[in-house]
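User: My instructor asked us to take a sequence, write out its structure as C-alpha cells, and then describe one feature of it. I'm not sure where to start. Here is the sequence I was given:
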Amino acid sequence: MKPTGAAGWKPSQTLHLDGLRVELSQPVLVARDKGYLWFPSLIRLADGELLAVMSHYADVHTNTPAMLASWSGDGGLTWSTPIAATYGQCPLTLPDGSTLMLPYYLYPKGEGVLGADCQLCPKGKRELKVIKDGVTVSGWPRRDRSFEPKLGLSGFVFNGQTVRITGGGYLTTLYGYFEGAARYNLMAAESQEGRAWKIRSVIADENCKLAGAEGPCESAICRMKDGRLMCVFRLASATPYGQCFSSDDGKTWTEPKAMDGVFSVEPSLAVFDDGAIALSGGRPGVFVWLNADGTGKRWQRVDLAANHKLHHPAEPAEKTSSYTEIVALSDKALMVIYDNVPHGWEAIPADSAATNSVWVVRLTVEKDEAK
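Assistant: Let's start with the prediction itself. The C-alpha cells for your sequence are:
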C-alpha cells in the first residue's frame, strides 16, 4: 500500500467548527496546461496510488472527449507527467484490484441498449487500456433523446460515483433526456461485473418538484453508516442540491428535498470510518461540507477557494469550474481536487501568459473536544 500520510504536506489553516477541528494543507499543483484543463476527478486505486483525470477539451459535445491522466505514489505531494486518454467517469474497483472507468458518452447499440468503449487501469500499472465496446446499458423505461444527433450520441451519460450493493455487484448513476422530457432525468443502474449494466430505478425525473431549470442531473452516491444510500444531485448552477435516500440498495428512493446552503454543480461524496460524511462542490466557489453525525442532514462548510487564495493570490480559485472530487485517505484524512480556469469557458489566448491548472488539498478532520 502506497503512503497516504500527512508527512511532507505544508500546513495552511486550522478551522474550529461545531464539534470538529479541520486542518487544511496548502494546495499542491497536479498539472498545468495552456489548453483546456478542468472538470477534474480523483480516484484512489487499490494499491493506494492516486489517479487524477482532467478534461482536456472544450465544454462541447464530441465523439472524442479527451482527458489528461496523472498518478501520485506519495499521497498527492507529487504527480507524474500527464498522459493523454479518453475522458471517463464512475470508476469502480474490480476483484483483481484493477480500476474500470466507465465512458461518459454512450451510443445506440440496438433496440433498448446503449453502449461504448471503456478504460481499464490495471492494478499496479500507470496506464489506461481501452476496452472496445466494453460497456452496455439496458432496461430503459423509455426512449432517449440524443444530446447531439449529428454525432450519433445517445441521450444519457454516465456521471458520478459507484458503490457496492448487497449480494455483490455495483450501483452507479446516469443522467440525460428521454423523448418529450423538458428536464433531465437521473437514473440508477446496477451491474454484477461492471460492464453489463441494467437500469435499476429512477432516482428523480423531469417532474421533480425541486427548483432548477436543468432538472436532476450530475450526482454522487454513498453508503451511510446506517446502511442506507444517499444521493446528492445538481438541478442547476447556483441552485441548492437535491438529496434523497434509499433503504433497499437503490431500488426505490425517497422524495427529493433541497439541501439548505449546499450547492450546486457536480457533487462528490466521501464517508469516514466513523460514518461522518464529506461533500465537495460549489458554484459559485469551491467548498467542502461536513456532516459529523452521518445522517446527511446538518452540514458545516469549509471554503477551499479562500484557502487557495491565501497561497496563490495571483490565480484565485474563484475562477473555477467548481467541479471537484473528494476521496477518503484514512479514517481522518480527505483529499479534494479542483481547477483554476482564468479565462473560464473561453480558450486562453495565444498571447496570454495565463494557464489552466488543477490542484489538490488535504484535509484532516477530527472531533474537537473543546466544542
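For the description part of your assignment, you could build on this observation: The radius of gyration is 19 Å. Try explaining in your own words what that tells you about the chain.
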